[in-house]
Amino acid sequence: MKNVFRLFISLPLFMASLLATDIVATVNGSAITKAEANDFVVKEVRRANYDALSLKDKKIVVNKLIDRRLYLEDAKKGNIQRRPDFIQELQRMKENLMLNYWLKDKAEEIVVDDREAKIYYRDHHQKFNEPASVKVRHILLATEEEARSIIRELQHTKRENLARRFIQLAKERSIGPSKKYGGELDWFIREQMVPEFSEESFSLRVGEISLIPIKTQFGYHVIYLEDKKEGGNIPFEMVKAEIIKKIRLEKVQTKLEKLSKKLRKSANISNFTVK
Questions:
Q1: Which of 41, 90, 100, 205 is the most buried (most CB within 10 A)?
Q2: Right CATH number for 2-78 from 1.20.1250.20, 1.20.1060.10, 1.10.8.1040, 3.40.190.10?
Q3: Average pLDDT of the chain?
């Protein structure tokens, strides 16, 4: 019985401490909760959540929320909430929010099954073609002779050491902005680079280097092909969600157009003039 009694006494204390951990600051007796901080981080900072931030960033967020709370208190003292323009704007925001929820409900009423999505995928297959792309490193040099010298050295490098040596030479000798990354470039498709550079990059096999200097307006390039993706249709499963979203959007638009016609027939619309 004593144990049960102790449990009932300690429970409120436990609940109080649990709630205290959810409070990140108190301003004039009003709590700012971790939920508010998390909401701010997700919507304003565009980060995953409050707990994922560093201690420094958490302090910045909490200070911003404290300032916001203080500004809000000062605004209330000015009776801004009673101003006609404020009331009018608040009403407009309520109406927009109501319409957003209404549209969301209309969209959720529409069901798009796999069969519809697959038909759309089949009929619009050209939209889901993925062009071939490559991932390369390059060493940019000012002269053709410098580029040929690099190529000769790399040709005498064992294949298993080629990538490592290429990265080292890029960092030491390249004059391009990618030198600090070992000459690394992002994935690109053929049309994203100057023709000379693209043609050589796409002609190489993975793990090969260009055997002649590639001249462009930037200088002379030595290229190493790290990886290649062949073009072709993107698999249905990868674009299924996107297709369903698009079909639903089209159906919502059609549904709204029909609803508009129906509502207009029973509505009393007068003095409709465009000036």
A1: 41
A2: 1.10.8.1040
A3: 89
